[in-house]
DNA sequence: TAAAAATACTCCATAGGTATTTTAT
DNA sequence: ATAAAATACCTATGGAGTATTTTTA
């Protein structure tokens, strides 16, 4: 069984839900196949990723999840980038920002990008600062505007 | 059809072999399934990755291959890292080197690592300078010792 | 004893194989 | 004309479902 992205998504889901059953629901599959798939992955790796009852990541499992998040983000990025190139753009910058950046900072960025780099597409996503920090680490964003008490550019 | 690692390996193989038939042989599958899989991936992405007869990457295909190489390397790294953590190590450094480094440089690195960082495992691979350069770019190695005319540390 | 994961089995979706046709040089 | 990819059809591996048992908190 080659380690593929599907298995990585499964392990990440279990880690985030803290339960095989809830993860299965989120993944829209039944619990038994999920248990089996993860069990086979663990046999394949020769490493236990979770302790059971209660479900809890092992140290190795934490390492796997951290890597898996990055791989999943990279795959999504690969798809986005491929489509962008086909569409004539030469690159994509995935921008994350908090609401407070939506009225001043972001429009200025977009105007500048449109003028100075017409081949670059901006994929913008609004979320909170914690998600931005995690997303930046995971490679889900290329550029983030997290909360600041006051901008110094006024 | 979710974009998975298998498909990425297929596309990379075709790009490297410059031919569906030769790539199929290298992947140990027949040519028709390979053509079909790539065709379905192209439909899924809405993007042509190869021109046919002669087989040649499109611009979008090049972007995809570049991303795919990184993802594949990251998956391999994830597996290595997970096993290493399970084995009690806190990290792995994948070292590539040319034969000429095997007698002086590499043993010294290993001795130093054993003494100063017992939790770190070295995964060493011997190959040639060109492969080292490519591997470093692809993330297959963390540290390389390519050919040098003479070391300055003697 | 009750909730959650593991087994046992069944089914079917799809990755892969073989035979053949199409296409571009 | 010929070599390489596409198409058509078939097979079978393994991913997912249902029913049930095991585990431990």
What does this structure look like?
The first copy, chain A, has 154 residues and is α/β, with parallel strands linked by helices. Chain A folds into 2 domains: 5-68, Orthogonal Bundle (Arc Repressor Mutant, subunit A), CATH 1.10.10; 89-145, 3-Layer(aba) Sandwich (D-Maltodextrin-Binding Protein, domain 2). Helices cover 56% and strands 14% of the residues of chain A. The first copy, chain A, contains 6 helices and 5 strands; from the N terminus they run αααββαβαβαβ. Chain A has helices at residues 5-17, 20-27, 31-45, 59-86, 105-116, 129-138; strands at 50-51, 56-57, 91-97, 120-126, 143-145. A 3-stranded parallel beta sheet of chain A has the order 4-3-5, with helices on both faces. In chain A, helix 1 (5-17) packs across helix 2 (20-27). The interface between A and B is medium-sized, with 33 and 33 residues. The structure holds a DNA duplex (25 and 25 nucleotides).
């Amino acid at each position: 069984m080659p380690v593929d992205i599907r298995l990585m998504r499964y392990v990440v889901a279990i880690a985030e839900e803290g339960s095989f059953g809830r993860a299965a629901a989120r993944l829209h599959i039944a619990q038994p196949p999920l248990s089996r798939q993860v069990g086979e992955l663990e046999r394949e790796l020769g490493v236990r990723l979770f302790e059971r009852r209660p479900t809890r990541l092992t140290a190795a499992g934490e390492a796997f999840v951290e890597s898996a998040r990055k791989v999943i983000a990279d795959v999504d990025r690969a798809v986005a980038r491929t489509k962008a190139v086909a569409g004539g753009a030469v690159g994509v910058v995935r921008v994350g920002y908090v609401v407070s950046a939506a009225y001043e900072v972001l429009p200025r960025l977009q105007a500048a990008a449109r003028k100075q780099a017409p081949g670059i597409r901006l994929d913008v996503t609004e979320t909170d600062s914690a998600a931005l920090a995690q997303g930046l680490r995971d490679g889900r964003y290329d550029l983030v505007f997290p909360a600041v008490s006051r901008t110094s550019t006024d």
